[in-house]
Amino acid sequence: MKPYPDYGTGKYVCRCPAVVPNNTQGWTKVNTDPVKVGTKDNRPGIVKVPKPGKILKFKLVHVCGGISCSYRYPLTHFGCHQSFFGLFITDTTKQVLSPKLKHQHASFYSIPGSTPYDAEFTLPEMSPTLNVANQQELQIWYGEDAFNHYETDNFGIVQIDLYCYYI
Questions:
Q1: pTM to 2 decimals?
Q2: Hey, which end of the chain has fewer CB within 10 Å, N or C?
Q3: Residue 16, Cβ neighbours under 10 Å: how many?
């Protein structure tokens, strides 16, 4: 795996472990290689679902790297600071598919019992389920980057694996 320096700082290098533990029983992994997601300058991770069907929920597994909403806060696996998750699953028009939020352009959300430092997290179940076609493109965005809110002080790149739970 190549090292990926942070945006302009050259100080952050991603070192991926040889084996990444995870619980994937009952899940379908979407990507072959880790998906890279940046925090600014329109850098979503792009994946194509491996099969058609109905998706109930998504799981994101940290592979390497880190992201943050500000240089004032340390890098996290999935968001910013101690309790804010910032990764969203969208369609190609940046329409948020998961998680569903009350405010359409909210950049962060919380998940009870989880932190953005965890090795993995599962997004809430979708109702109704998400119908997808074979090889349909999904994008993984950092919220502030997707909605162009306060992204200038964001930094970092994270690499993740994305899993779908089909029903």
A1: 0.84
A2: C
A3: 14
